[in-house]
Structures are given as C-alpha cells and as structure tokens.
Write a structure and sequence with these properties.
The chain is α/β, with parallel strands linked by helices and about 290 residues long. Helix content is about 40%, strand content about 10%. The protein has eight helices and seven strands; from the N terminus they run βαβαβαβαβααββαα. A five-stranded mixed beta sheet has the order 3-4-5-6-7, with helices on both faces. It has a two-stranded parallel ribbon with strand order 1-2. Helix 2 crosses helix 3 and helix 3 crosses helix 7. The longest helix has 27 residues.
Length: about 290
C-alpha cells in the first residue's frame, strides 16, 4: 500500500510499480498494489487514510512492513500545519506517530512488524525536537529538528515495543528537490531517488537486521554511533514520545468531535424574509438633513 496526499501521483507510482514487476512474476492474482490518500500534516485525515489501508487488506491481514518516509522541508521555520503545529514536526514526526498509533489501535500493524524510520545525518545540527521547540528563521533547522525527532522515536518505539523490528536509516543526500529549487537538495551530483531508496529497501526487506540499529548508505549497513551522540539521548527520546502521545490524543479527539458534529445548514432566503426586511427598513424614521 502506497500512501500519500496526491491521488494522481499515487496512481502513477502504483502503475510504475506494477510495470516494473518481471513478466514471469506478473500473476494478477498475487501481485496487487493499493494506494491510500491522506495528509500526515493534517491529523483530521489520518482515520480516512487508515480506513483506505484497512480496505486494501484481506480480512485478518496485517501490515508486516511499515516505512515512515514522508517529509517536508518548510520554506521557513514557523510554518504551521492544519492543527497549528510547526509544519516539519507535524508532518515528519507527529503525523507518522499518529498513523502508527491508529494502525496499532485497529490491529492493522503486526506485533512483530518491521518499522523503518527514515532520518538523516542532519539531525546532528539539532539539539531539540517538539511542538514547543525554539523557532528560528530557517526552514532547514526545522527539518533538522524533525530528523532528530525521527531518531528519538525509533529508539523509543523499539524500547516500548520490543517485539517490533525498528530501524532508523539515513538514505543518503538525495536529489529529491526537497525544500524547493533554492535548497542544495536540488543540485545535480547527489544521489538519484532510485539510489536513495536502496538503503530503506534493504532495511525493509532483509532478514539480518539489528533491532534499534542506525543504518547508513555510506557504510552500506549498520553504523555505530558515539556514546554521547544526541540521537542516543534516552531521556529526550522518552519525553518526545510522551509529548507525541498527548498531541495525538488531543488532536485526534478534536478531529473526531468535529466529524461527529452535524453541519448547520445555511438559512435560505424566502419571500417572508424579504417582507420582514422591507418592513424593518420602512419602520426607520427619516433622518434630519
């Protein structure tokens, strides 16, 4: 199941995936690709997305692999999501957490699933991550904070759910255009998206994966981190997890309440309305000039 916020692009990805399957394996009875359209930056769309994912699965079937790859690089720090949360944090960290929680709640994510969380070495430029992190003038710093958050979530998810196989992965610096043409991620000479997908795919599909590991494209596998690396800050990881749980509970409850509240129909204009309006106007005494 491929998830995203643009239905047309999702359809293109699905069709390209099916075309890439070797002819010898193109058994339409066993090879099926589905899409789910929702926006991680808007928590009110998460349940709809989970409904679409559930519809794509057979009865009793669960997701065995979850790749948390969605990311935005805001034009400036302080841009807000639909729920008023800083945009990079809302999409790259909070949205994934809300999706994973909803899948788990509905028993759609296997208890021993492989969860691949895409982060990036730029996390070393940040020291904090959260909805109340200090806002700077740089969208780049917002992105770096979110990548640190991804690393912390990977660590804490593995600690709290030891049956899962959780890995954090640095895919390389990919020429994806992330952040727009003005950023260095649009310049030539970087990894192509196809090459950038290799390490996440290895982490998602290979058997010999170290739980809680940090995988890096440059070393072609597991990368060791220094003992005092900020990504290994257990206290900060736990605090971020608790904050995410609170935010998800608050905003998902608000979204559910809004969905359950019937819309108030607009009052239509009738002939009687016009009569009443005319009478009220006529009743106003003329003003002295």
């Amino acid at each position: 199941v491929a998830a995203g916020r643009d239905a047309a692009k999702l359809g293109t990805v699905r069709d390209a995936f099916l075309r890439a399957i070797p002819r010898s394996c193109r058994d339409t009875a066993s090879v099926v690709a589905h899409t789910a359209c929702f926006d991680l930056a808007d928590l009110s769309t998460i349940e709809r997305g989970v409904d679409e994912i559930a519809a794509a699965l057979r009865e009793g079937e669960q997701l065995k692999i979850l790749v948390e790859n969605a990311a935005v690089w805001p034009a400036s720090d302080g841009e807000k999501s639909a729920q008023g949360v800083e945009l990079a944090f809302a999409t790259n960290v909070l949205g994934h957490h809300a999706l994973r929680a909803a899948l788990t709640k509905r028993n759609l994510l296997a208890k021993d699933a492989r969860v691949v969380i895409v982060t990036g070495d730029v996390y070393v430029l940040a020291t904090e991550c959260g909805a109340k992190a200090a806002i700077t003038s740089s969208g780049r710093m917002a992105y770096c904070r979110s990548k640190l958050g991804n690393a912390w979530v990977a660590r804490e998810l593995q600690r709290r759910h030891p049956a899962l196989e959780v890995v954090a992965v640095h895919p390389g610096v990919v020429a994806s255009g992330l952040g727009g043409a003005a950023t260095r991620l649009a310049r030539p000479g970087l990894l192509s998206p196809k090459r950038g997908a290799q390490m996440p795919l290895i982490c998602a599909t290979q058997k010999s994966i170290v739980k809680g590991g940090y995988y890096h494209n440059k070393v072609g596998g597991l990368a060791g981190l220094p003992e005092k690396d900020v990504a290994l800050d257990a206290q900060a990881a736990g605090a971020l997890w608790d904050e995410l749980e609170d935010l998800v509970a608050h905003h998902m409850a608000a979204a559910a309440a809004a969905a359950a509240t019937p819309a108030v129909p607009a009052r239509s204009s009738t002939a009687e309305d016009h009569v009443e309006d005319a009478a009220s106007v006529d009743a106003v005494p003329p003003q002295d000039e």
